[in-house]
């Protein structure tokens, strides 16, 4: 209980890669959003990866991505939780879907960005778990990345039954019950798969998506649509951006040692 | 047991057989016990048997798209996905061969999957072999049997512990606090194929697809029902606790009496008019299984929510009173509202309406319909050739019937009384001691709009004291 509470509070979301110098270069670009600040919201935290790193510290490249949505963004749907009083009581304010979240500049949140092609070598999975918290009858984070074979700690911070129904097609699916507050289960996905959907049958409004990749070069856009992928060896890569409603886009990018490269994606509502 | 008796497991002939079985095991890579009758897998034979017996529902290639598939709830399994509901293995892992053999042999009660015990065991095993070939999951993932504890038996099962587990584990979220499939999440469930589904009504043991004995229930708790919403609780309770919960769940099952003749008890004085009149306890109970009427295209609109109704009947010199009880997950008093109809065959029409699934239809004879509306809280009687003219009565007021009703925790109880020989409506059915009268029921759940569940015909007989 203590451990899981600690985890749900600290909220280790996405383990970012470290650079050759052994310092964490960046964390996931996920950040706290206002509606998440209420209950058990995960705080982003970069962790040192023990894995051997592909690039030397001073020469690794950084991708600074921004994902935007053009056109009129749909209204965020009000999530009705009246079916379960335990859920309802945790939200004094109206709670809105995280499917399409854009800021005033069109920055699109919850886009999973990762290197799809171009990497060579193996990147052993970190031992530190990625945390997926069920808090306020919502998955936190809604979109996240995890390395293949990296532990995924799934926590129930709610005093109600959740079931975690993971529906991968390449990996082994599972559907487990977490009936008691504080319960934690650790799972792993053996193979890369973008994306793996999670859902809760008890609370059909709950869903989450995990991008499972076999390297540490990924991130999820924050509420401004920003994402940083760092520690990337010089080279030419195919980057893919994935959004649950607007699909995927790829770009081919060449980066040099020490370069910080801005990349933009624009999804359209049309 | 005498040593080397023919029944001893150490008999040389048995040992030789064990070697053969072990070889089969090794070839199959299956870790569990295999029946001695199990033949070497022959995919050709399995495919032939599948085509003959299974393809009508599960489809020629196993995609669950056979000619009858859309008429079924639940839908036939898409065998190519390799997702199987009834297993003894961890969530997400395939079933053992024995699990598949058992499902084929025993069928899935409450669904359209019949048992296939009339097929030779060898043929069933060949079908198992063929099913395995339909999905790559059997090659990629080994079945992982869940850890089991010894059966404590009914005497040592802890009822209080089982009840406490039912509450703390959140079973009521879907199955309801009394097990009547009326939990707050019951209405929103969707299976992995996007089809709306309903949780099991735990009071109806006969409808548990995977078996209603404590061991089967215990396995469902630990393994979950893959593809449906039911998760695995293997990490939420111990194997010992799973038994206590299973025994508690089986204690929720209510005894059923599938009588073909319902007997009404005679009383000398007035008939019981309240749903909780103690005299109902002296009447025989008869249970009726209900099936949803399929729509014009023969497809399910939504999963059935009312699966059964029971009745008791009491009569005196003038009238007969029925008490009907049925589980409906939602109490719907406004349109679309709940409703119930007792149908009687008027004299002379016996045999004409073979099944209510086919009524009303063009040219079908009229039936005597005693209809109760949850919206009005009243019942009335009409002789009609369709439901609509009864459920939405016209200006001509039908004869109202004395009725009472109550809804509590997912269960309706309704009492309705009618004359044995009604003067109105014209052509009404007569109930006498001289003959049986055919009756059937139809149920509308306003929370499941467009659905109508109907029973088969049974007879009502007036029992002399």
Care to describe what's here?
- The complex is a heterodimer of chains A (about 270) and B (about 475).
- Chain A contains two helices and 16 strands.
- Chain A has helices at about 1-10, 85-90; strands at about 60-70, 110-115, 130-135, 140, 145, 150-155, 160-165, 175-180, 185, 195-200, 205-215, 220, 225-230, 235-245, 245-255, 260-270.
- The termini of chain A are far apart.
- Chain B has about 475 residues and is an alpha+beta fold.
- Chain B folds into three domains: about 10-140, Cytochrome c-like domain (Cytochrome Bc1 Complex, Chain D, domain 2, Orthogonal Bundle); about 155-250, Cytochrome c-like domain (Cytochrome Bc1 Complex, Chain D, domain 2, Orthogonal Bundle); about 260-465, Immunoglobulin-like (Sandwich).
- In chain B, about 25% of the residues lie in helices and about 20% in strands.
- Chain B has a ten-stranded mixed barrel.
- In chain B, a hairpin with a 3-residue loop joins strand 4 and strand 5 (about 320-325).
- In chain B, about 45% of the residues are buried.
- At the A-B interface, strand 7 and strand 8 of A face loops of B.
Instruction: Name the helicity range of chain B.
Output: 10-25%
Mean pLDDT of chain A: 84
SSE succession of chain A: HEHEEEEEEEEEEEEEEE
CATH topology of the largest domain in chain B: Immunoglobulin-like
Which term fits the overall shape of chain A?
globular
CATH class of the largest domain in chain B: Mainly Beta
Would you identify the CATH architecture of the largest domain in chain B?
Answer: Sandwich
What multimeric state do the chains show? heterodimer
Structural class of chain B: alpha+beta
CATH architecture of chain A: Sandwich
Mean pLDDT of chain B: 89
Uncertain residue segments of chain B = 1-34
The order of strands across the largest sheet of chain B is: 1-4-5-10-9-8-7-6-11-13
- Topology-level CATH name of chain A: Immunoglobulin-like
Based on secondary structure, the structural category of chain A is mainly beta
| CATH C-level category of chain A | Mainly Beta
């Amino acid at each position: 209980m203590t451990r899981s509470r600690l985890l749900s509070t600290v909220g280790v979301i996405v383990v970012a890669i470290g650079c050759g110098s052994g310092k964490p270069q960046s964390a996931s670009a996920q950040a706290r959003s206002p509606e998440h600040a209420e209950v058990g919201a995960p705080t982003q935290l970069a962790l040192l990866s023990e894995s051997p790193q592909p690039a030397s510290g001073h020469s690794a490249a950084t991708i600074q991505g921004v994902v935007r949505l053009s056109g009129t963004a749909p209204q965020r749907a009000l999530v009705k939780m009246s079916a379960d009083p335990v859920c309802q009581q945790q939200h004094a304010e109206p709670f809105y879907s995280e499917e399409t979240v854009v800021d005033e500049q069109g920055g699109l949140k919850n886009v999973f960005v990762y290197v799809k092609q171009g990497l060579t070598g193996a990147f052993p999975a970190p031992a530190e778990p990625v945390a997926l918290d069920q808090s306020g009858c919502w998955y936190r984070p809604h979109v996240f990345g995890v390395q293949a074979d990296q532990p995924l700690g799934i926590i129930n911070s709610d005093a109600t039954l959740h079931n975690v129904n993971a529906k991968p097609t390449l990996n082994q699916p599972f559907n487990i019950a977490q009936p008691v507050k504080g319960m934690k289960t650790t799972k792993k996905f053996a193979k890369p798969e973008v994306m793996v959907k999670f859902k809760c049958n008890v609370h059909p409004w709950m869903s989450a998506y995990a991008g499972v990749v076999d390297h540490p070069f990924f991130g999820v856009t924050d509420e401004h649509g920003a994402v940083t992928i760092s520690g990337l060896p010089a080279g030419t890569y195919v980057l893919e951006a994935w959004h649950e409603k607007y699909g995927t886009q790829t770009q081919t990018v060449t980066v040099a040692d020490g370069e910080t490269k801005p990349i933009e994606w624009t999804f359209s509502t049309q | 047991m005498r040593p080397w008796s023919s029944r001893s497991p150490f008999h040389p002939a048995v040992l030789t057989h064990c070697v053969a079985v072990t070889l089969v095991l090794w070839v199959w890579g299956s870790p569990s016990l295999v029946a001695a009758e199990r033949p070497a897998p022959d995919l050709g034979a399995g495919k032939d048997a599948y085509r003959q017996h299974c393809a009508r529902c599960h489809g020629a290639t196993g995609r669950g798209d056979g000619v009858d598939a859309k008429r079924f709830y639940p839908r036939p399994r898409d065998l190519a996905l390799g997702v199987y509901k009834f297993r003894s293995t961890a969530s997400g892992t395939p079933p053992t061969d024995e699990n598949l053999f058992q499902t084929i042999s025993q069928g899935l009660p409450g669904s359209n999957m019949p048992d296939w015990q009339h097929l030779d065991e060898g043929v069933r095993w060949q079908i198992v072999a063929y099913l395995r070939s339909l999905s790559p999951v059997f090659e990629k993932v080994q079945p992982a049997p869940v850890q089991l504890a010894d059966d404590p038996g009914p005497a040592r099962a802890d009822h209080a512990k089982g009840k406490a587990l039912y509450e703390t584990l959140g079973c009521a979220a879907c199955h309801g606090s009394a097990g009547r499939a009326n939990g707050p999440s019951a209405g929103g469930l969707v299976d992995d194929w996007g089809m709306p589904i309903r949780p099991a009504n735990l009071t109806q043991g006969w409808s548990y697809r995977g078996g209603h004995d404590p061991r089967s229930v215990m396995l469902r708790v630990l393994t979950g029902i893959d593809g449906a919403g039911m998760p695995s609780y293997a990490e939420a309770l111990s194997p010992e606790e799973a038994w206590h919960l299973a025994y508690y769940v089986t204690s929720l099952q209510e005894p059923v009496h599938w009588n073909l003749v319902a007997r009404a008890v005679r009383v000398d004085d007035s008939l019981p008019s309240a749903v909780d009149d103690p005299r109902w306890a002296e009447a025989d109970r008869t249970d009726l299984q209900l099936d949803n009427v399929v729509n014009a295209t023969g497809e399910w609109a939504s999963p059935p929510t009312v699966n059964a109704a029971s009745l008791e009947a009491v009569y005196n010199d003038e009238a007969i009173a029925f008490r009907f009880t049925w589980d409906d997950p939602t109490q719907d008093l406004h349109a679309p509202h709940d409703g119930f109809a007792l149908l009687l065959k008027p004299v002379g029409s016996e045999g004409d309406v073979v099944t209510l699934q086919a009524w009303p239809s063009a040219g079908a004879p009229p039936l005597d319909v005693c209809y109760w509306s949850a919206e009005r809280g009243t019942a009335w009687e009409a002789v009609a050739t369709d439901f609509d003219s009864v459920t939405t009565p016209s200006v001509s007021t039908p004869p109202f019937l004395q009725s009472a009703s109550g809804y509590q925790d997912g269960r309706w109880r309704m009492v309705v009384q009618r004359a044995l020989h009604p003067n109105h409506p014209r052509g009404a059915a007569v109930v006498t001691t001289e003959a049986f009268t055919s009756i059937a029921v139809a149920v509308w759940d306003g929370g499941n709009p467009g659905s109508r569940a109907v029973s088969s015909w049974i007879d009502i007989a007036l029992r002399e004291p």
